[in-house]
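@channel sequence for tomorrow's demo:
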Amino acid sequence: MGVNMKPAGEPTVRPAVGISLFISALFTLAFCLSGEEGPSYALEKKDVLKIGGTGSAIGTMQEMAKAFRKKFPDVEFVFVPHLGTRGGIKAVLDGAIDIGLSGRSLNEAERKQGGRDFEYARSPFIFVTSQKNRDGDFTLQRITKMYTGEIKNWPDGTPVRMILRPEGDIDTVLLKGMSPEMKEAVGRAQTKEGMITALTDQEATDIIEKTPGAIGPSTLSIIVSEKKRLRALPLNGVAPDIKNLADGRYPYYKPFFMITGPKSGPLALRFLEFTRSPEGRSILTRTGNLVLTGK
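structure tokens (generated this afternoon):
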């Protein structure tokens, strides 16, 4: 499904060429027409920008929207909930929203429909819990045993409750890509009766917050941007933070793409350009994202 599970390595990554050139061309034209010293966009009154997609990115984009509206106060933002990556891509290709937020790049069929993608950031893919235990010995092997049921309780005796995601969901794909043992363990967990399956990123974190002993996958971005009362677990002795992701010590991440469709207008592209500005990059960083810098 085009999801990266390789070690993060070098943090400077070239974004998707198509959208990068498209944005550059559009704003070069705007510059030429306006005669100003930078990109310009003449906003109409009460312009509306509709955004939706993977829930892990929504909180960050809401912060981005607040900053954007300080420059363009007449712009209204509508964040469409519960779309997920698949729904966000479909909605933007159909013209129902202006920007889709995705945890994967577009496939060839989606590009043929007029879709363009731009990988703007990566966030550590993490395991979170509301458990207060300070037991820091979390290895991939230990979490795998939680999925299989070999480890049934936390050190204080609280039953372990694994929160699953649907088959085909990006988080499930990422989980299964962590190791062959994890792939098998997650597959086995999905066949057990009584397991809790969260349909969206927000639902998953809400359930983990409220359920004693719950643990499940998430991203640092949603935990930070939505101020979740959850603990991100160190994995194999490495904290899942941006610094460790950047230098490759923490190798697991979720990529984030902004998707435009055939009906996405200049305002959508102006917002994409804003995410690449120094202010936009600062917002991405403080909300738990490793910023990708195009060359």
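heads up for whoever presents: Strands lie at 48-53, 76-80, 99-102, 116-129, 161-164, 196-197, 214-219, 231-232, 253-260, 290-291.
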